[in-house]
Each structure stands twice: as C-alpha cells, then as structure tokens.
Write a structure and sequence with these properties.
By secondary structure, the chain is mainly α. 68% of the residues lie in helices and 0% in strands. Residues 15-42 have a biased composition (Basic and acidic residues).
Length: 76
C-alpha cells in the first residue's frame, strides 16, 4: 500500500482545528489554575510575609536617597 496521508479529504484541516481548540482550552485551564495558586499563596503566611517584605523594600528604596544623587563623584 502507498502512503495517501495527503489525500484524507479535508480531515487534516478538521484535526488542526480540533487541536487548536483543545490547546486553547488547556491554556484557559492552566491560567485558571495559576490564578487559584496565586490567590492561595497571597492568603498564606508566606504570601503575606513576601508582600510585607516587598512593601518594605519599596518604601526603603523611595526614601533612600532623599534628593541626593545616587552616584557621587570624588576628586583626588
């Protein structure tokens, strides 16, 4: 028998469309799962600690130079 995979009567296009839809559904489920994990992390003690640490670092970086230039030149 010969290979007639190119002459499948349009099933190739239908299969590609089905694969595209399945891929889109899988991406949507993965995004939902990632969102749920993010929400659970934010509610956990580790998530609250991480948020507090990021806020403290942001506060420190905004107050650190107080109008002074970040790099100072020294002569000599």
């Amino acid at each position: 028998m010969g290979c007639f995979c190119c002459f499948d009567g349009g099933n190739n296009e239908q299969r590609k469309e089905e694969e595209r839809l399945a891929s889109a559904e899988a991406r949507a489920r993965a995004a939902e799962a990632a969102q749920k994990r993010q929400e659970q992390f934010e509610k956990s003690a580790a998530g609250r600690a991480a948020r507090a640490q990021m806020q403290a670092a942001a506060k420190q970086s905004t107050n650190s130079n107080k109008g002074e230039p970040a790099l100072k030149w020294q002569m000599g």
